[in-house]
Design goal:
Blueprint lengths: L1 E3 L15 E7 L2 E8 L4 E5 L7 E2 H7 L3 E5 L16 E3 L6 E3 L6 H17 L5 E6 L1 H12 L4 E7 L17 E3 L7 E3 L13 E3 L9 H7 L6 E6 L9 H8 L3 E6 L6 H4 L1 H14 L15
Parallel strand pairs: 1-15, 4-6, 4-9, 9-10, 10-14, 14-15
Antiparallel strand pairs: 2-3, 3-6, 5-12, 7-8, 11-13
Length: 295
Amino acid sequence: MNTATATTPSAPSAAEVELRRSVINVDDVAIRCLEAGTGSPVVYLHGSEGLRLSITHRAIAQSHRLIALELPGFGWTPARTAHDGARASNHGARTTYDGSRTAYDGARAMAATVARALDSLGIEACAFMGHALGADVALWLAIDRPALATSLILLAPTAIRPVDSGISGKPPLTVPAPNPAHLWFSEPDANGEPAHAQQAAPPSGGPARDAEFEKAMAGIAVPVLALFGTRSTVVSTDAARLYSTLLPKCFTTMVYDAGHDIDLDRPDAVTAVVKNFLQHGETFIVNRDNAIINP
């Protein structure tokens, strides 16, 4: 297990990378898509905060083809079915996510829709990068469409969380708004509030352990990078051991001074380790010579 400390290199270059916008029609859903860069594809799947990108994504797009898909039931992309784990809000065409209804079958249904969207783009193989719920969807993609996934990058994955994680008894706290300079793409919510506004973040022990799902995870053969924020009140760092145990080729990293939105809290640390992982894959090694890894 690796640890990323507060001693980090400078932030990624602010070089401009053009975002290309499109809509992919699949499963009777118009999925919003953002793309940037060229090269081997990296598909980003967002968490419950909706589609937003950090400067880590911009740095990835400088050497890869970044494809960010809006999951069904979020933002302007409508839910496909009631099993997508999302509910329509009262805000016109936009929808919001109800995290309390997340279930494995919901993430799995989203994964199937994402896979068909990528088929329509002609993507035969790619690295998946997912945050929270998006990480859970990425795991299902690797399980159900193994030929599609070349590697997985999981940011604060929520598919499995220890019931007694040490955070379940803590009172809710207010998550500080991320530095706007760490955002690359964001947009106001349906009420006109910025997507990075402060929000209440009640801690949670997470979904119950699922033996069938964990058995399927053990069959994921591609390299996996799993990052956990040491200050998260959503996913305890105790979960890191579970992923390391269940996934045959899993590299886990603790990112110090990061909460649940790891790449928005510590984009410099996340960018360095993610780009290293994308470059080296199964030969990925974190050593003390790397400035951000220093237990």
